[in-house]
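#data-curation
PF: Archiving a pair of folding outputs for the training set. Convention for this channel: one message per protein, sequence first, structure tokens after, nothing in between. First:
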Amino acid sequence: MNETTILVIEDDKSIQNFMKISLKTRGYAYILADNGLSGISLFYADHPDLILLDLGLPDIDGMEVLRQIRQKSDVPIIVVSARGQEREKISALDQGADDYVTKPFSAEELLARIRVGLRHKSSTVNHQEQGFCLDYFRLDFEKRKLYVHDQEVHLTPLEYKMMVLLVNNSGKVLTHHYIQQEVWGYDTTDDYQSLRVFMANIRRKIEDNTANPRFILTEVGVGYRFVDE
């Protein structure tokens, strides 16, 4: 079995060392890049399984690194940055990042996000043919039907489209803007209120407890994440 390799693009030596130790203790191989251009070169040369990307790099902005890599590959990319504002998170996620970790962070949080990113990469293999099952939730792509506790749940066409989008990106944060574009094909002018209404309706249909949802989690101010465990 091939070793999982993670590319770390980070210029801060103390954080780089922290990541290196965290990855090493869990058996991950790692490649280190001190700036954006060397990170892009190592991505092409070594084909890593996942990338940890800082945004504040000394040569080119991390967002440009993200754009260039995403043009060529769907490798999981977790942005790790001190830029904690919601607009930064939304921008990175809309540009194709799979997740966002704000500094400072713990080794446990970082490793958990890495596990989710790697699972998402492997779980994207033929969801459409196999369907999707998690606990008491089952989505049958072929029949276009959803079952909760083995009972069929009626979804409107838009609700079904939204559900498929979330499930096919399970474990990944989807921004309001991204969901809006994928489901409606355009941005509405109601500050995503329509999207929130649709999501509330879906939750009422699939969650045992809407106050403490099992499947669809809210990333406050950013979007939604369908859990994958």
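PF: Second:
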Amino acid sequence: MACDYPAAYEVNLPLTGHLASRGKHGPVTSVPGQATVFRADTPSLITHWDATCTVLGVKFDRDWLDREAERVLGAGTVRVALPDQLRLEHGPARDWRHLVAGLSSQMRDGALFSDQPIVREQLAGAVAAGFLLAGCPDSGRVPAPRPRAITRVVDAVRADPARAWTAAEMAAVAGTTVRRLQESFREWVGCTPTEHLVGVRLQHARADLEAHPESSVSEIAARWGFSSASRFAAAFRRRYGRPPSEAR
């Protein structure tokens, strides 16, 4: 199964059987006591889902988890630091597995603390903190907080992705040169500013394709800042493995 998790991290914990996938660093096979980590906005491939395999999935909003990473670890983004797989047999990772399993069993009985938002926020924070400490245990190797200049560009692009951004304009938002901005983006975000911009636009366009079938592909491409429908289609296929017309 070709899949991706727009603006979210996904952690799959097999309860029975095994789950095989292709991660950033090669093949990954997880069995009970292990978890496969899928990065936000990164196309992934599940190569085998055992017929006996049942999975408990934990999904984190990307922006929210990045903010929690800054609070818990002092890291602006965890995309680079997270492994493709977590071993959950010992230490903080085992404790996190028990926490998630306990919450999952309680949620089957209805909305957990549905009338107590403060408790829900604290539980969410505990799940995130436990995951971050288990997935990034070596705090000495976790990157320092993302520079504010990079954060300003990321926030500006997400606020207005359809704008005809140029590299110079993004550098001006950051208060630096184009070359330095590109170097910093690769270090802290894992891609160039332009690649990040295209990724944000594709997320919005994909959502529109699914939600507004009355709009043509060309209209949606123009709405989100693509200079032509053909370029949009090529970028969409590279990202999602299929043409925009099939995303409806």
